[in-house]
Amino acid sequence: MLEQRIQQQFFESADLQYQAAEALARPIAEATAALLAAITSGGKVLVGGSGAGAALAPHLARLFAGRFERQRPPLAALALSPGPDAAQQVKALGLPGDVLLYIDDGEGHSTMVISAAQGKDMTIVVLAGRGAQAFSELLAETDVLVAVPHERAARVAELQMLVLHCLCDAVDFQLMGDQAP
């Protein structure tokens, strides 16, 4: 019985990834374009998040500033502190043309950070799960919402990690071509 429950976790995760591949390809490509526009024009990516998303933010910043699967020059990326300090960091560090990539876990602590980025004329990319519709009203037409289609927090976090890796791969592909890792 326990083994079946464990297997069910894998099946549910795999099903979600399969279903999301088609639905998320376009918003991930749009997010990639926003990231590349900032990076190639001398801008930077500020990465923040709430809850589990706050734990993913330093991972993405490290992959951009370091490397994903192959060597390349470092990309300007910085992980923001979790909580209300993130909005202050955006106000202090954000510039027009930079990107705020915000990973939301559904706790709804993102409004201040997004408002700070809007005040600095930054492009905003949001990865969200539950409550993603609330972001549609906050974001401008030039911003990107990558909405994970699931209610369970564990599945959302798993797919958000995959989305971050897709972004890294897509940015590397656009910058360096189709070289093998």
CATH architecture label: 3-Layer(aba) Sandwich
Q: From N to C, what is the helix and strand string?
A: HEHEHEHEHEH
The domain count comes to 1
Rounded radius of gyration (Å): 16 Å
GO molecular function: carbohydrate derivative binding
Pfam family, one: SIS_2
Organism: Rubrivivax rivuli
InterPro entries: SIS_dom (IPR001347), SIS_dom_sf (IPR046348), SIS_GmhA/DiaA_subfam (IPR050099)
3D architecture notes:
- The protein is globular.
- The chain has a single domain (1-176), classed as Glucose-6-phosphate isomerase like protein, domain 1 (Rossmann fold, 3-Layer(aba) Sandwich), CATH 3.40.50.
- The mean pLDDT is 93.
- The chain contains six helices and five strands, in the order αβαβαβαβαβα.
- α2 (52-65) links the parallel β1 (45-49) and β2 (77-79).
- The protein is α/β, with parallel strands linked by helices and 181 residues long.
- α1 (2-40) runs parallel beside α6, α2 (52-65) packs parallel to α6 and α3 packs parallel to α4 (111-119).
- 56% of the residues lie in helices and 13% in strands.
- The protein has a five-stranded parallel sheet with strand order 2-1-3-4-5, sandwiched between helices.
- The relative contact order is 0.19.
- It has helices spanning 2-40, 52-65, 85-93, 111-119, 133-138, 153-176, and strands at residues 45-49, 77-79, 99-103, 123-128, 144-147.
